[in-house]
């Protein structure tokens, strides 16, 4: 049941902290605080490159995974949505890693892409929530997300569970390839283990998120912005808003705005941005200043460290706890999903069963 929540989506949003914790618990040894993956039938140290594919939210999780794999493990990564990947016929180096991500394990395009990768000699590793699924059966190895059943058609907790697995995988690949030191691993694991507690604090921000929702509920189009590993967070926010509120939303890498989409901006197009402190903070702030100068209404997610700088600029600022840059996209995801839910409530849509959508897309 819904345990007293109004919708499964609301219940599942509140499960983020627990799900992140349970997923990490499977992959991190509590005694040594080191990542310990289940035995794999291939050697991560010898994998020359990785190719990542998935659909929808799972694909956005994969995009964040790519940033981590590249940065932490210095491994070349190619990525595409499964519906494209399956027909691309990319030349793949034999012995490479084919990384699939799926909540259901039944998505037809993801399964077809898997088969194409297998035919091209890739080791198939799948990040799955349903561990008894077709994709699981056809994989060489499975890393489970411990999200429990996800009922809401709009994915929420499965996404942060996927990120938790991908973060651990990136650490494991980095250690295997010697691009990450033991001290480096300790620091990254420390920031992962801190996440469930920090995630729990985000629900206190609901009142400010509701204020944002009131602005968005009156709009016809919404722009989502982010840079680096928070660009996929913007994509996830825009997808979630479209799914549950039926408001048109588009996400852009913030630096790409001046190459076209900035022409859309006026008082009627709210701009939602995910801007945690870190390397790309000032770059993103200057993109937001450009939007502000054109009359854009800025609704900004940041962290406590970035909040001061953004208060003068944005109409509404929501500051999540400050964490390491590495784990920031995991925390930033939670409020953008909450925002979509709050807008759906204001719109009175069928939150858990949006029109035209199915939970599991088993046809091409
Ligand atoms: O079961 P999967 O993770 O393979 O599903 C992939 C997408 O269909 C799914 O993420 C979809 O985009 C969700 N409705 C997003 O909220």
TrEMBL record:
Active site: 359 (for fru-6p isomerization activity)
Reactions catalysed: D-fructose 6-phosphate + L-glutamine = D-glucosamine 6-phosphate + L-glutamate
Keywords: Aminotransferase, Cytoplasm, Glutamine amidotransferase, Repeat, Transferase
All copies of domain SIS, residue ranges: 40-179, 212-354
Molecular function via GO: glutamine-fructose-6-phosphate transaminase (isomerizing) activity
Repeat listed as a keyword: yes
EC class of the enzyme, as a word: transferase
EC number(s) reported in the record: 2.6.1.16
Cell compartment(s), UniProt: Cytoplasm
Function: Catalyzes the first step in hexosamine metabolism, converting fructose-6P into glucosamine-6P using glutamine as a nitrogen source.
Name of the protein: Glutamine--fructose-6-phosphate aminotransferase [isomerizing]
Lineage, highest ranks first: Bacteria, Pseudomonadati, Pseudomonadota, Alphaproteobacteria, Acetobacterales
UniProt gene name: glmS
Residues of the full protein shown: 244 to 607 of 607
């Amino acid at each position: 049941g819904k345990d007293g929540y109004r919708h499964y989506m609301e219940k599942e949003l509140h499960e983020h902290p627990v799900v992140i914790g349970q997923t990490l618990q499977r992959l991190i040894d509590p005694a040594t605080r080191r990542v310990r993956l289940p035995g794999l039938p291939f050697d991560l140290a010898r994998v020359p490159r990785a190719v990542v594919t998935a659909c929808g939210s799972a694909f956005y999780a994969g995009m964040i995974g790519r940033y981590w794999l590249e940065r932490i493990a210095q491994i070349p990564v190619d990525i595409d949505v499964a519906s494209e990947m399956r027909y691309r016929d990319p030349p793949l180096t034999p012995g490479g890693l084919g990384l699939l991500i799926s909540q259901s394990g039944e998505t037809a395009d993801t399964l077809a892409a898997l088969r194409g990768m297998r035919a091209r000699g890739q080791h198939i590793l799948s990040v799955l929530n349903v561990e008894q699924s077709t994709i699981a059966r056809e994989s060489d190895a499975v890393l489970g997300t411990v999200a429990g059943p996800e009922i809401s058609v709009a994915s929420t907790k499965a996404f942060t569970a996927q990120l938790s697995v991908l973060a651990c995988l990136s650490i494991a690949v980095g250690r295997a390839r010697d691009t990450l030191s033991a001290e480096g691993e300790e620091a990254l694991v420390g920031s992962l283990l801190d996440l469930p507690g920090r995630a729990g604090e985000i629900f206190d921000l609901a009142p400010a998120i509701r204020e944002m929702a009131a602005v968005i509920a009156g709009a016809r189009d919404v722009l989502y912005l982010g840079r680096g590993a928070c660009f996929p967070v913007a994509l996830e926010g825009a997808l979630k808003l479209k799914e549950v509120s039926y408001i048109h939303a588009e996400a852009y890498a913030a630096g790409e705005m001046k190459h076209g989409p900035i022409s859309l901006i006026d008082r009627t197009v709210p701009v939602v941005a995910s801007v945690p402190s870190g390397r790309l903070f000032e770059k993103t702030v200057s993109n937001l200043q450009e939007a502000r100068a054109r009359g854009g209404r800025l609704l900004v997610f940041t962290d406590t460290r970035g909040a001061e700088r953004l208060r003068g600029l944005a109409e509404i600022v929501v500051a999540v706890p400050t964490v390491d840059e590495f784990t920031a996209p995991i925390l930033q995801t939670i409020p953008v999903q909450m925002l979509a839910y709050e807008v759906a409530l204001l719109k009175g849509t069928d939150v858990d069963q949006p029109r035209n959508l199915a939970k599991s897309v088993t046809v091409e």
